[in-house]
């Protein structure tokens, strides 16, 4: 029992400890944070990383650097994060590919569940079917008819073998009963350049990277891949309502870090990403890119990824796209 005389000293000690406790709670980050985009500059994850970096820099009072580590359908960048120091200072800005690759590749350089820790879901966006303006296609049925009339002639681009744009196109080919030639690029940015230049005629792009080109008239928007029409594109039909019943292939974006990172650092990063998503400027930019922000805890995001791993396993099997 503490004596009456001793109580002031005890209270003083406790008060003195409060700043130290607060500092411990705010000790993340303590150094430069790397935001790794696993695809080339100009792609969707790169755009998102560069939207978030200055806001995080200002909030954390630490340098936040965007680092592009393209290759192997996003595995190169993800592997760099998986093998980084488990302190939360290396973050992966990822997309659906992180849930596709474990089923796509027979040999992975890391274990997605064990070596990567979910931090935050940024949001979801529909993918879009876009074509080069020279292609005489205004809707899905036009494309199907043209492809059937010219089997094996139309070329579609992707951000690389096995990425979402490749798997979705293969699902579309299978559902529509058509044949198109796959032209893989090293990232969604180069794939868009291929479409813009006319090297390819068809591309299943995420809305993030495509919308500026759609608005400028450099590519033609044909349909969205979501189950329902996108609020940002109310006049654009879905592929499902255009005659390919049941077709659905949304995209999502999130943040992960190195497996084994302390829960306190993961939670601190999650809180700041959630605050940043609600920033008015960021929210407007996400909306303009067709992204609907979603607030999930790290635990909820982990459950979401587990469900996505199952979903894309079935898609890869259907597409026959597994890489040995």
Explain the overall architecture.
This protein folds into 2 domains: 31-124 and 251-319, D-Maltodextrin-Binding Protein, domain 2 (3-Layer(aba) Sandwich); 126-242, Periplasmic binding protein-like II (D-Maltodextrin-Binding Protein, domain 2), CATH 3.40.190.10. The chain is globular. The N and C termini lie far apart (69 Å). The longest helix has 22 residues, at 298-319. Helix 7 links the parallel strand 5 and strand 6. With 324 residues, the chain is an alpha/beta fold. The chain is built from 12 helices and 10 strands. The chain has helices spanning 7-25, 44-60, 75-82, 97-104, 112-115, 140-149, 164-176, 188-197, 207-215, 263-278, 280-288, 298-319, and strands at 33-37, 64-68, 90-95, 116-131, 155-158, 181-184, 202-206, 220-224, 250-258, 292-293.
List keywords for this structure.
324 residues, D-Maltodextrin-Binding Protein, domain 2, 10 strands, single chain, 2 domains, alpha/beta
In a nutshell, what does this entry contain?
By secondary structure, this protein is of the alpha/beta class.
Unreliable stretches covering 5 or more consecutive residues: 10-25
Kindly name the structural category: alpha/beta
Instruction: Kindly state the number of beta strands.
Output: 10
CATH homologous superfamily caption of the largest domain: Bordetella uptake gene, domain 1
List the helices and strands and how they pair.
Layout: H1 7-25, E1 33-37, H2 44-60, E2 64-68, H3 75-82, E3 90-95, H4 97-104, H5 112-115, E4 116-131, H6 140-149, E5 155-158, H7 164-176, E6 181-184, H8 188-197, E7 202-206, H9 207-215, E8 220-224, E9 250-258, H10 263-278, H11 280-288, E10 292-293, H12 298-319
Parallel strand pairs: 1-2, 1-3, 5-6, 5-7
Antiparallel strand pairs: 3-9, 4-7, 4-8, 4-9, 4-10
Helix pairs in contact: 2-10, 4-12, 7-12
């Amino acid at each position: 029992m503490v004596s009456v005389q001793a109580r002031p000293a005890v209270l003083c000690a406790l008060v003195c400890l409060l700043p130290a406790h607060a500092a411990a709670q705010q000790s993340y980050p303590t150094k430069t944070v790397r935001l790794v985009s696993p695809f080339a500059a100009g792609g969707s994850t790169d755009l998102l990383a560069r939207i978030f970096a200055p806001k995080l820099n200002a909030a954390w009072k630490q340098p936040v650097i965007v680092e592009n580590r393209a290759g192997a359908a996003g595995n190169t960048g993800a592997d760099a994060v998986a093998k980084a120091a488990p302190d939360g200072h290396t973050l992966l800005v990822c997309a659906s590919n992180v849930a596709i690759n474990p089923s796509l590749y027979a040999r992975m350089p890391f274990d997605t569940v064990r070596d990567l820790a979910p931090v935050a879901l940024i949001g979801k966006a529909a993918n879009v079917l876009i074509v080069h303006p020279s292609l005489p296609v205004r809707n899905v049925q036009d494309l199907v008819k043209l492809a059937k009339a010219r089997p094996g002639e139309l070329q579609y681009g992707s951000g690389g073998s096995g990425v979402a744009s490749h798997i979705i196109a293969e699902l579309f080919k299978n559902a529509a009963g058509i044949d198109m030639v796959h032209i893989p690029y090293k990232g969604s940015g180069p794939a868009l350049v291929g479409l813009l230049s006319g090297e390819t005629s068809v591309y299943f792009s995420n809305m993030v990277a495509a919308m500026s080109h759609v608005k400028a008239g450099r590519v033609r928007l044909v349909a969205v891949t979501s189950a329902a029409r996108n609020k940002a594109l109310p006049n654009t039909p879905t592929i499902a309502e255009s005659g390919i019943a049941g077709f659905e292939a949304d995209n999502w974006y999130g943040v992960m870090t190195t497996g084994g990172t302390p829960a306190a650092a993961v939670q601190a990063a999650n809180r700041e990403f959630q605050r940043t998503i609600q920033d008015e400027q960021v929210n407007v930019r996400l909306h303009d890119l067709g992204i609907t922000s979603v607030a999930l805890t790290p635990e909820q995001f982990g459950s979401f990824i587990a469900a996505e791993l199952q979903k894309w396993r079935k898609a890869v099997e259907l597409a026959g796209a597994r890489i040995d």
